[in-house]
Specification:
InterPro entries: YcaO-like_dom. By secondary structure, the chain is of the alpha+beta class. It is built from 8 helices and 12 strands.
Amino acid sequence: MAMRGALGITRIADITGLDRIGVPVVQVVRPFSLSNAVSQGKGGTMTQAAISAILEAAEAYFAERVDRFESVVASASSLSIAAGRFARHLRDGAPPDWHDQEIAWVEATNLMDGSRSMVPLELVHTAYTVPPQPYDGIFAASTTGLAASFVETDAIAHGILECVERDAVARANRIHGFFQRNRIDPATIDDAAVCEFLETLSAKGLIVGLWQAPSPIGIATICCHLMEDVEGQEALLPHPAIGSAASLDPAAAIAHAILEAAQSRLAAISGARDDMTRAVYPKYPDWQMIAAHRRLIAEGPRTQSFLKLSKPETEGVKDGLPPLLALLESSHIRDVNLIRLETEPLTGLSVVRIVIPALQPLLES
């Protein structure tokens, strides 16, 4: 809470009571943000949710201070950067000769071998202004891989997991019939805490769909759709809320994905997120499509077993940095870029950006 003034936070709000689920969700308002003015956090307790929201605001705040980055302006070709290195992260319609255009770059540390390399600043900063920052417009900007923690290794691990998660969900979105073939059968879940969580949600009138998203890294990545089990017109929020998470522990991935979906519900219910436009609230919803989605969650095929999500090499392993890097290496990922962000005047806080060129970002279709 002592960080509020330095971050420009003017309001911290508990919005848990706007929904019936009871998962603690907190919103933080930062009016002079150059990205989202409203950040959200969730957790098992109100304290955890508040810390989560404040740290999310801190991530964006430090990443939007473009003047604090020691950037250089050069072309990829002049820096001897292969044309295909960041190809997965190009915007639609990016000029084919971008490799020869001068753009801004920042230096990064490759966590796989300790070498130094250059990463486009556009993939690091969050100063989403109009007009855009100089040299922007080539790459698809997002907050993927941006993480904050009071322990740097935790921030780095979180950033890596987010890159893995977004890549897996992007792959799932490109698979025809994904939701008909990759549903996890809840009857196979043997984790007591997850089973209790699902029973609590069911008792509150919500249905949960869980899918395994395909990750080439072999890390359990879960997509969750959370929806009320009532006719659309009677629901507090008729549309499904979506969440996703990746973890070496499949049970943790499921729990985090459900929490993310619960947070997404409250973002829509509160109406306070500035990245949720009028399109999210259609005046004439497609009730037939909404009913079909409810049937998919309630009655759709459940072909995947929870017991097969965990791999022998990750059995019982926590989401620490060494096992994550070992998995990336075994998957032939050789380029994991770490950019440390300056956090003055705050001390004891680590904010990092992880950029993994081989993993694709999750973009709006």
